[in-house]
Amino acid sequence: MKTIQLETPGTFKEIEEQEPTRKPGEALIRIRRIGVCGTDIHAFHGRQPFFDYPRILGHELGVEIVEIDENDQGLKPGDKCSVEPYLNDPDSAASRMGKSNCCESLQCLGVHTDGGMRPFITVPINKLHRANELSFEQLALIETICIGTHGVERSQLTKDETILILGSGPIGLGAIQYALSLGSRVIVGDISEERLSFCRDVIKVPHALKADAPDFEEQLKKICEGGLPQVVLDATGNRFSMQRTFDLAAHGGRIVFVGLLKGEIAFDDPNFHRKELTLMASRNATPDTFKKVIAAVANGSIDTKPWITHRIGIQDVPEKFQETVSRPDLIKAIIEV
Question: What is the pLDDT of residue 263?
Fold first, then answer.
């Protein structure tokens, strides 16, 4: 079967592979749609931590089951599913605590191990989340929405609180839409006017601010009636933005880093203590979050239709990937298999 492999930073190559053989406890699935993630873009540019080349990308997957054994979930051939791409050791300490998303030996499809940029793969049955009522494109967006949603879940945001979400790429959009669904006051900060316009006009975010404006903090205080947001979630993976969150959170507030930086950050410890801030990392998402997000997309409280701005066929990835992900109007690209 024809497979697209990222050989080195900046270079995709079409290779030939044999179709995979299913093992007990696994399902053979046909890849129908692949979401292009920031992780994929960083890998393409050589900026992705925990990454080796060559690698078959693709972890945001809308798939169809081809072969499967009888199973507790009642899954069967023909079912449409989203894939939870985090391959964890169920006996690890983190997994036993319900933290399969940050298992000590976790392998993420398309990052630590080869992913879905090919017609067929096999995955453990328990990593499939059925949703026959959704389209394959919607299913390919579930994982990225889950990451943003899990970040908001980590913050324990309530409807009476204000959250500032820095970065309105796909991960940030997932956090934005979930926070809006809670009824919380949502403020978005970004340096891209195109993305801010998308948030205002399409997602209907009431407060979308230029994060590099000289009076950004003053605008926050005005919206928060003299204070600052109780929760600041950073989905940028940018060192300056992440370090700035310590100044933008309210006293007693919580900071969640969803974006990942290949490097170190620093913060002013007296300010951190004076505010009694809580700093949290957020990694991937849990099975329960997948179920929650699928239900939200199915009932319309999270609308994925406006997200997809670009589509490319898998055969065109070697030639068109860089052009597509470099577009200033890009919100989300989908690869059609």
Answer: 86
Q: Which residues contact 123 (CB under 8 A, 6 or more apart)?
A: 26, 27, 29, 83, 109
Do the domains 2-130+307-336 and 147-281 sit in the same CATH topology, yes or no?
no
pLDDT digits (tens, 9 = 90+) for 194-228: 999 999 999 999 999 999 999 999 999 999 999 99
- Name the DSSP letter for residue 199: I
Neighbouring-strand partners of residue 232 = 164, 255
Distance CA 302, CA 179 (A): 10
Domains in the chain: boundaries: 2-130+307-336, 147-281
How confident is the model over 8-29, as pLDDT tens digits?
Answer: 999 999 999 999 999 999 999 9
Contact 231, 164 (CB under 8 A): yes
CA distance 246 to 242: 8
- Does CATH number 3.30.1490.190 belong to domain 2-130+307-336? no
CATH architecture of 147-281: 3-Layer(aba) Sandwich (3.40)
At 166, the pLDDT band (50, 70, 90 cuts) reads very high
SS3 29: strand
Q: How far apart are CA 140 and CA 84, in angstroms?
A: 10
Greatest extent of the chain over all pairs of C-alpha atoms, in Å? 62
DSSP string, 84-99: --EE--TTSHHHHTT-
Question: Count of alpha carbons within 13 Å of 257, Cβ hemisphere only?
Answer: 18
- pTM exceeding 0.90: yes
